[in-house]
Design goal:
heterodimer, A: alpha/beta, Rossmann fold, 5-stranded parallel β-sheet, 5 helices, B: alpha+beta, Four Helix Bundle (Hemerythrin (Met), subunit A), 5 domains, 5-stranded mixed β-sheet, 22 helices, 21 strands, phosphoprotein (chain B), Sig_transdc_His_kin_Hpt_dom (chain B), CheW-lke_dom (chain B), nucleotide-binding (chain B)
């Protein structure tokens, strides 16, 4: 059974890059375009990992983490944040909300896969 | 990566235009924090992608801007006109950088330097030193380190599961660094009835012999450093596990752990070559992680959970291909319908009718896909209005209505220039200066309204201003001066106003930068006409003017009226057809000034037989006259027979036929023959033009 990763990013090109990278390594990818959209996926289906952008319209990445942690079923799933270096302060906020880790943009595909593998083993 | 880069280009273009709009809104409401947030967010998305897809210069500039807007967001800085100006010019420059990522072109280089300088000035004024300083991507230097044995205590907080972290993974990562052992400590685990399965009670003592420096060992904890207690201590410089004589049991017991460790560390190591040890630790370092991830790579059935995304992006080439195929299908279907008519067969007829129905639906669906909201275009005008209002020192409000109205994308692209021109005219010549407006009792802010709406198979676009209006007398005088009309010609208001579209007519006393020399309204009409559209103007002195453009929804397939002249068939676009009349051929021939009275009104007419040099002897007794209209004008077109309605797929005529007067295209009929599509616009212009001269 390959693992399912939910990604949330408002940038289409990043979404495509991330999902193509993950899919090429055999993961199933669910795609959402903003925070609100991401939370609609938490409907009982199995999600093994969430990778979310920090800055998104409607609901930002921190909101996504909070939303995930509020749900019994998804309370303990890993959530990775995609951040840029300039947002160190937000990183703290995200962690406080319950984020598992982060990937710094710009990232290399291999790095992304390495981190994903790590949290998903 | 290249295809992603392409996607980024499209996305960035959108982001830049969104950013521009957000900035324009911000300019109006500089204290609106949510708008600052929006600006910041768009910049941020732009920057994130730029870094990913190799647009370093864009990344750099957006980074600087982001710093500035971050300060605004935190109330440390106010939104000033200067900042907005610099931001807007940066935004313009970003577009250039999308196509010149390395900033190699001279002009871009200059702009880049200038903009950086401008940002610098702002930054210096507010005293952040960091903003434009060259950013160095921090790359930790790998210091080669002698291997050593480390004692690591890893005590995760009890709440660590709530962050989605599995502490066992951390232990695994640590063990992967070298040769090591982990000893789980269970002393914190409460009695069974007090156990909360959502909390972590276990912690670990680890002994690892590794060449990894302490800093990198700590990197393992990077995500959770504040959610656990960590201690990393160097014990000794040799690998105790090489020595088979250690008693792991003494390590397993927390009470004996420390004393035993001291004892072991004090033993002298057996001689071993460093190389061998290093190699070993490297090896285990590489394999440690991968080994346990096999099931991740297991390609099982792809999980079926596809969520509908509200829209997808399709290359416009593909849409064009689709439209071409649909056009072919429409043509083929016409052939099938004809065949079924000629060869009566019940079942064939049913098939043919169904296919006709499906083709029509497919055509409509495919059409709707090529339509995009005209807002794409309207949004661009906001910036234009802002710049022009500054330049002219007029206060101008731009109101946009019906931006969601959809039009064929090729039409929208072709409309950009004409609309821009009309708008500039309104801003420059239409709207008065503030003092003039106040003395005329008007609001000092001028308003220009652009609106779009559907009407039948057409889209209407209006540009309306509340300026001084067009002086008919001035136009009339000018037109007489230029010889466009005679001194004694009697023209009604619509006809006079229509003269602004005549070549070479300019009423502006002053030539300005903004709207140019007044040449161009004729070009505007030409552009619109090329789109099979029409353009009208209405105006009232002192109150304002309105220019209206009426366009077909799409360009490639039209509903037409199929007519015949001798053996040739022609198509007249149905939308311009007003009424069909039947007359005795004789009535027309006796008519000298090419006017015919229909329904009590005189209408100029064009006898196609005459125009196309048809054989006079084959003329039928009854002639059909089709009244077509455009721009308030009506003309009758005489043909032999009317066949009926026809869905015509428009094909351009070859280049040798481009300059003729009557034909705008061709279409293939069901039986494979060709029908020419009459260009009623040109026919009307010609007949009316001749009339004016003749008067």
């Amino acid at each position: 059974m390959n693992k399912t990763i939910l990604i949330a990013d408002d940038s289409e090109s990043i979404r495509q890059l991330v999902s193509a990278t993950l899919e090429s390594s055999g993961y199933s990818v669910l795609v959402s375009v903003d925070g609100e959209d991401a939370l609609t996926y938490l409907d009982g289906s199995i999600i093994d990992l969430v990778i979310t952008d920090l800055n998104m319209p409607k609901l930002d990445g921190i909101g996504v983490v909070k939303g995930i942690r509020e749900k019994e079923q998804y309370k303990f799933i890993p959530v990775l944040m995609l951040t840029t270096e300039s947002q160190a302060s937000k990183k703290e906020a995200a962690k406080k909300a319950g984020a598992t880790g982060w990937i710094v943009k710009p990232f290399v595909e291999d790095k992304l896969l390495a981190v994903v593998k790590k949290v998903l083993r | 990566m290249d295809s992603y880069q392409e996607h980024y280009l499209i996305e960035a273009t959108e982001l830049i235009s969104n950013l521009e709009n957000a900035l324009l809104v911000l300019e109006k409401t500089p204290d609106d924090k949510s708008q600052v947030e929006e600006v910041f967010r768009i910049m941020h998305t732009l920057k994130g992608g730029a870094g990913m897809f190799g647009f370093q210069k864009i990344e750099e500039l957006t980074h600087y801007l982001e710093n500035i807007y971050d300060l605004i967001r935190d109330n440390k800085l106010a939104t000033t006109a200067q900042i907005l100006d610099v931001t807007l010019s940066t935004v313009d420059h970003l577009t250039a950088l999308l196509y010149d990522a390395e900033c190699k072109e001279e002009i871009n280089k200059e702009n880049h330097a200038r903009i950086k300088n401008e940002i610098d000035i702002i930054v210096k004024a507010i005293g952040i030193t960091e903003a434009t300083a060259e950013r160095t991507h921090s790359q930790k230097e790998v210091v080669s380190n002698a291997s050593a044995l480390y004692h690591i205590v890893f005590k995760p907080n009890k709440e660590i599961f709530a962050n989605g972290t599995n502490p066992l993974f951390i232990v695994e990562d640590l063990l992967a660094l070298g040769d090591g052992r982990a000893f789980a400590r269970t002393t914190r685990i409460p009695p069974f009835d007090k156990i909360n399965p959502e909390k972590c009670f276990v912690y670990w003592d680890l002994l690892i012999f590794t060449g990894t420096p302490v800093e990198e060992i700590k990197d393992v904890f990077i995500f959770i450093e504040d959610q656990c207690e960590i201690a990393v201590n160097k014990v000794c410089a040799f690998n105790i596990f090489e020595n088979n004589q250690i008693d792991l049991k003494l390590f397993e017991n927390p009470k004996t752990f420390n004393s035993y460790l001291v004892e072991i560390a004090s033993r002298a190591p057996k001689k071993k070559t460093e190389d061998h040890i290093n190699k070993k630790s490297e090896l285990s370092g590489n394999t440690g992680v991968v080994a346990s991830t096999d099931d991740d790579l297991d390609m099982g059935n792809p999980k079926e959970r596809i969520k509908n995304i509200s829209s997808i992006r399709v290359a416009s080439d593909k849409l064009d291909d689709l439209m071409n195929l649909v056009s072919e299908l429409v043509t083929t279907q016409a052939g099938l319908s004809l065949y079924s008519e000629q060869n009566p067969d019940r079942r064939l007829e049913v098939f043919s009718e169904n296919i006709e129905k499906l083709t029509r639906q497919l055509r409509d669906t495919a059409f709707s896909m090529t339509l995009i909201p005209i807002n794409h275009l309207f949004q661009r005008f906001k910036r234009l209005v802002r710049d022009v209002s500054l330049q002219l020192n007029k206060e101008i409000d731009l109101v946009i209505k019906g931006g969601e109205t959809e039009l064929d994308k090729t039409i929208i692209e072709a409309l950009a220039d004409p609309l821009m021109h009309i708008l500039r005219n309104s801003l420059d010549h239409g709207l008065e200066h503030e003092d003039e407006r106040i003395s005329a009792g008007k609001n000092k802010t001028g308003t220009v309204t652009i609106s779009a709406y559907y009407s039948g198979a057409n889209v209407h676009i209006q540009i309306k201003d509340d300026g001084k209006g067009i002086d008919q007398e001035k136009i009339r005088a000018k037109a007489i001066e230029k010889g466009l009309i005679g001194k004694h010609d009697k023209l009604n208001k619509a006809e006079i106003l229509d003269l602004i579209f005549a070549p070479g007519l300019s009423t502006a006393a002053q030539i300005t930068d903004v709207s140019g020399r007044g040449v161009g309204m004729d070009v505007v009409r030409k552009n619109v006409t090329n789109l099979r559209g029409e353009i009208l103007v209405d105006s009232e002195v002192g109150k304002g003017s309105v220019v209206e453009i009426i366009l077909p929804l799409t360009l490639s397939i039209i509903d037409g009226l199929l007519v015949q002249l001798e053996h040739t068939k022609y198509v007249i676009p149905l939308e311009v057809v007003e009424k069909c009349h039947e007359l005795n051929a004789g009535e027309l021939q006796e008519n000298i000034n090419q006017l015919v009275t229909l329904d009590g009104k005189q209408v100029p007419f064009l006898d196609l037989r005459e125009a196309f040099d048809a054989d006079k002897n084959t003329a039928p007794e009854l002639t059909q006259i089709i009244v077509v209209h455009k721009n308030h004008k009506r003309v009758g077109i005489c043909v032999d027979t009317i066949i009926g309605e026809y869905q015509a797929v428009l094909k351009p005529v070859g280049k040798y036929y481009r300059n003729q007067e009557f034909i705008s295209g061709a279409t293939i009929l069901g039986d494979g023959t060709i029908a020419l599509v009459l260009d009623t616009n040109k026919i009307i212009e010609q007949s009316i033009g001749q009339k004016i001269v003749a008067l």
